[in-house]
Design brief:
By secondary structure, the protein is mostly helical. Helices cover 54% and strands 7% of the residues.
Amino acid sequence: MLLGRGVQWRLPVPPPLRWLLPRGVRLRIRHLRLGTLLEIERLSVRHRLEERLLDPPADVLAEITALAVLNDRRLIRLLRRPLTRWLLHYVTADSLVELWGIILRLSRVEDFTRITASIVTMSTLTRPRTGHDSEEGR
């Protein structure tokens, strides 16, 4: 993902809305937040996706894709089910599997761990030093 811009694609709209959005709706998957990562992991454990790598269920893949696109607690609460249904109806199964592969690459925990470790390191480096520790001052 170049410069944090994410992965984007166009989703076709239903026939009654085509006059309003003739080119479709553009969806984007950006770096996933920790809550989104946890929810995706919860879904994959509940549906045992690790065991079903060759034939994952399309409804679960659509829900995972919807979570990755929304990537916000409030948006997930409001739009999770409608977006999942929309993805099931207007995106092919091959595209869902391809998007799932992208989401798997984005949901690696190593990146989050590296960021957390660098924040901890920076906080210890920028901590003010008083010249003595609390134990030495006793």
